[in-house]
Amino acid sequence: QVQLVESGGGLVQPGGSLRLSCVASGFTFSTYTMRWYRQAPGEERVWIAGISNTGGRTGYADSVKGRFTISRDNAKNTVYLQMNSLKSEDTAVYYCNTVVRYDYWGQGTQVTVSS
Question: Which of 39, 49, 76, 104 suits 32 as a labelling partner, its CA being 20 to 30 A distant?
Fold first, then answer.
């Protein structure tokens, strides 16, 4: 079955960096677009970045453009989210997502940006 497992979250000071990872299994990773979403307390889950199956195309929400970079390693079945210049408003649970007939989500990883 499809599984997505995120890691790499934690507590970081404003201006700091983190790299999130999402390891996928149960499907042919290299043929599917992958996405990152986040959900802040009391808010809806929102899309923040996506990457095509080959990694040749990427897209970002305006809120993270220029600070976050999505990438993937198809040999490792892993998608990454490099987050730089973090702000307090980036505090959220971050989720990995793909659509393989159905929507699949990981369990999420908490990112807290605070001094």
Answer: 39
